[in-house]
Design goal:
Length: 404
């Protein structure tokens, strides 16, 4: 196994990092790895509470990929057991708990999407239910004895909720302890996470020490601001660009970011050296040109260069030339008259009937060239297709199924 020098590794590792606890310990671990020719174990915990990854997740995943490229072992922990508790990080109230089946299913999807960044052949994937699920109640009591309530209340979100007299369930105290037990079980050398995970990472470091294990180094990464330029990226806030967004949607969402985010997005989302200087130079002259270059690069990273070219062509045709795209998928219906709300759900333009109603109420649904205003509208279908636009970027052809 070949490892670069400690300095060469550190030069790459510190890029975009918010905090390393501690740099001196990291240097010692890297030197020991070099001397023993043994890779470090680098852990990233994945919360499968939602199955869709967005570009905010990519920030820490790219750091894990850098450790892979340096020759170290990447361990992706799917928190299927801890997801049944619900991570309270940054939340003002108790989070809903998932069933074991939901957590495992989301975890599979998480790994498939994360493999767009990680080298799956060099990634060890674990489910923490394998060891946490085997713990007995006596084990949980012993684990709880290693941490005090006072220390738990040092956590920002717990402190805020305690002061505002909002309920904090006992089971939420168990989340950081359970995540810390992942580090005890794996004996990993390094753990990565966003800045909102700092407390949990430090608990893992403390528990390793309590169990006689050399403490992990904690590395925190910045939280990516969403497309609106205000709060952190989150699908629930509607400001996210997801890994599985269609190329045209991904491209269009990238163009919607505020100009001041261009440099941050470029620095955090594009691999080092790729187009960075070129995009920043374009930003000074024409922010729109810079965003187009950045948008194409992001689409190419998650799909292909061909998909990026197609997304740009689609955007220009629809939003600049005000034309429907050349290629639109055709959906045929058995019925001759379909309630628009039901149709939007069937087409996948809306995830639920309530979302479909909101889209119509917001006047974001167009049939041919007519904006729909009534939520009770029925679409009368013929053999000649109608074009439905849902939102700004999604087009569908609908027609009655031909009978012979």
């Amino acid at each position: 196994m070949y490892f670069p020098t400690v300095k060469e590794q550190l030069d790459l590792i510190v890029g975009n990092v918010v905090e390393i606890i501690s740099v001196e310990e990291l240097e010692k671990k890297l030197l020991h790895s070099l001397q023993t020719n043994k890779p470090l174990k680098v852990k990233l915990g994945a919360d499968p509470s939602r199955p869709d990854l967005h570009l905010g997740h990519s920030v820490v995943l790219r750091k894990l990929r850098e450790f892979q490229d340096l020759g170290h072992e990447a361990i992706l922990i799917i928190g299927d057991f801890t997801a049944m508790i619900g991570d309270p990080s940054g939340k003002s109230k108790t989070r809903p708990q998932l069933s074991a089946e939901e957590a495992r299913e989301n975890g599979i999807s998480y790994f498939e999407q994360a493999s767009k960044i990680l080298d799956p052949a060099k990634t060890t994937i674990c489910y923490n239910s394998d060891w946490l699920g085997a713990m007995k109640f006596a084990d949980v009591i012993r684990l709880s004895s290693h941490y005090t309530v006072a220390r738990m209340l040092e956590r920002d979100d717990f402190e805020r909720r305690y002061r505002s007299q909002e309920p904090i369930s006992i089971h939420e105290f168990l989340y950081p302890l359970a995540q810390g037990m992942d580090s005890v079980h794996l004996k990993n050398d390094i753990e990565l996470g966003g800045t909102d995970q700092k407390f949990n990472l430090l608990v893992g470091r403390d528990l390793q020490r309590e169990y006689g294990i050399v403490p992990q180094v904690c590395i925190t990464m910045p939280l990516l601001v969403g497309t609106a330029g205000e709060e952190k990226m989150s699908k629930s806030l509607g400001n996210a660009i997801c890994f599985n967004d269609p190329p045209s949607d991904m491209y269009g969402k990238m163009l919607s970011i505020p100009d001041p985010l261009i440099e941050t997005y470029c620095r955090l989302l594009v691999p080092p050296g790729e187009l960075f200087g070129e995009i920043l130079a374009q930003r000074e002259e024409n922010p729109r040109t810079a965003k187009r270059a950045l948008a194409k690069k992001i689409v190419a990273l998650y799909y292909s260069e061909e998909a990026a070219e197609g997304a740009e062509t689609h955007f220009d045709q629809v939003f600049i030339h005000k034309k429907a795209p050349d290629q639109i998928e055709l959906f045929e219906f058995e019925e001759r008259s379909v309630l628009l709300i039901d149709m939007l759900v069937t087409l996948g333009a809306a995830s639920s009937k309530s979302e479909a109603r909101r889209m119509i109420q917001q006047k974001s649904v167009v049939i041919d060239d007519r904006k729909v205003e009534e939520i009770t509208e029925c679409v009368e279908l013929e053999s000649e297709p109608k074009i439905i636009r849902a939102g700004k970027r999604r087009f569908f052809k609908v027609a009655a199924k031909k009978t012979f």
